[in-house]
């Protein structure tokens, strides 16, 4: 047995994304106690940086000590009680996970379903709200990672509030990569992950709860079914002020990494990060379409950081991804659910969203597909992408 030395990959799948050298360096700093005053000072800074990333002043904003799925569960187990009715929007894999959470809380999920690749239809949501006046919550995925569709969170939240419902929003792939304005849009509870556009290692889940949502948690009729995720207990550790009650041993070094990643986002500026992801999406799009590939999601509804494209006819999905990984050290993602074998998911997230990665991905795809005699147009993808990148550089 020897020490594990991982290969150096270029991560352009649906996550995790490439991690900045600054974040990797932060992870290796000396471990201190999770109740050390110096660490508690860093925790306070972390909350402020997360408030910036979410565009919120919510006091109840912190990272759950577990991956994004635990952030999702934190929102549901604290806000949903047995017997509640929750309207759940599903337009991909992750809406289905919301449904699972609702049912495990002993509540009823009223499903609003849209085709995979489409956004959540506000009209269907409004119809469900009218048909279920006793609904308590509307839950939806802002950025559906399985398809690359970005729903209109602002409109969906407005609809929910018109019918006196709270909202739970999945922002795992959108935080740091797409416009997301928790306070301006009035989002009640939101969760994300560190491994997407924040470009930190997986293992933490930023969450934020509005005052309205916090009041609902405080006035529950039943005890939260999860001890570890019970906000009334967790906030004894993550609450304001210097005094902290022991709840669990926080993942100290992972929190160093997230702090550094959020600092990088703050230095770049939220709007600049959103613009960078959009610009690089346009360059990648130009290259992929020049190759002859098409997008699953229609123009205007696409996530810039997660590009789901159709696999050329006659091409073996798994074989291409295996060659890219083993020969090019390049990871792209497979399709999920009913899109398995039909699409590739190409990520441009956080630190990985840069011109070099775009050109490398397009060049590698061109070479691999050309050797397979796939129905593509070879030699044009990289120039098409560079034209977009160079055009923006000249304009600035």
TrEMBL record:
Protein's UniProt name: Alanine-glyoxylate aminotransferase
Annotated residues for binding of substrate: 345
Family as reported in the entry's similarity comment: Belongs to the class-V pyridoxal-phosphate-dependent aminotransferase family.
Lineage: Bacteria, Pseudomonadati, Pseudomonadota, Gammaproteobacteria, Thiohalomonadales
Entry-annotated residues carrying N6-(pyridoxal phosphate)lysine: 196
Any one Gene Ontology molecular-function term assigned to this protein's record: alanine-glyoxylate transaminase activity
Residue stretches making up the Aminotransferase class V domain: 39-335
Cofactors required: pyridoxal 5'-phosphate
Keyword Transferase: yes
Record-level GO BP terms: glycine biosynthetic process, by transamination of glyoxylate
Any Pfam family matching the protein: Aminotran_5
């Amino acid at each position: 047995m020897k020490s594990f030395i991982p290969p150096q990959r270029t991560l352009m799948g649906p996550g995790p994304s490439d991690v900045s050298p600054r974040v990797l360096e932060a992870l290796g700093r000396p471990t201190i106690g999770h109740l050390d005053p110096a660490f508690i000072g860093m925790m306070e800074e972390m909350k402020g940086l997360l408030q910036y990333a979410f565009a919120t002043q919510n006091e109840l904003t912190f990272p759950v000590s577990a991956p994004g799925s635990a952030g999702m569960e934190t929102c549901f187990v604290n806000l949903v009680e047995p017997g509640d009715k929750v309207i759940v929007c599903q337009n991909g894999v992750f809406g289905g996970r919301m449904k699972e959470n609702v049912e495990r809380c002993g509540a009823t999920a009223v499903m609003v379903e849209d085709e995979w690749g489409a956004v959540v239809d506000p009209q269907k949501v409004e119809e469900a709200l009218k048909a279920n006046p006793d609904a308590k919550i509307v839950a939806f995925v802002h950025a559906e990672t399985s398809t690359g569709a970005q729903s209109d969170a602002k409109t969906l939240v407005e609809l929910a509030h018109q019918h006196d419902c709270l909202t739970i929003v999945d922002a795992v792939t959108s935080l740091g990569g797409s416009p997301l304005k928790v306070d301006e849009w009035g989002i009640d509870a939101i969760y994300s992950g560190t491994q997407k556009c924040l470009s930190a290692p997986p293992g933490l889940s930023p969450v934020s709860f509005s005052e309205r949502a916090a009041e609902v948690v405080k006035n529950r009729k039943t005890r939260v079914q999860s001890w570890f995720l019970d906000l009334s207990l967790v906030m004894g550790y993550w609450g304001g002020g210097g005094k902290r009650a022991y709840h669990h041993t926080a993942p100290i070094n992972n929190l160093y990494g997230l702090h550094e990643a959020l600092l990088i986002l703050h230095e770049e500026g939220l709007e600049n990060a959103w613009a960078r992801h959009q610009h690089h999406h346009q360059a990648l799009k130009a290259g992929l379409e020049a190759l002859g590939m098409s997008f699953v999601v229609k123009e205007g509804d696409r996530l810039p950081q997660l590009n789901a494209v159709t696999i050329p006819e006659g091409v073996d999905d798994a074989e291409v991804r295996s060659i890219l990984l083993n020969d090019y050290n390049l990871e792209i993602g497979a399709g999920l659910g009913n899109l398995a074998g039909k699409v590739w998911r190409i990520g441009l997230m956080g630190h990985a969203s840069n011109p070099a990665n775009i050109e490398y991905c397009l060049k590698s795809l061109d070479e691999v597909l050309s050797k397979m005699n796939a129905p593509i147009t070879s030699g044009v993808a990289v120039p098409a992408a560079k034209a977009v990148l160079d055009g923006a550089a000249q304009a600035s």
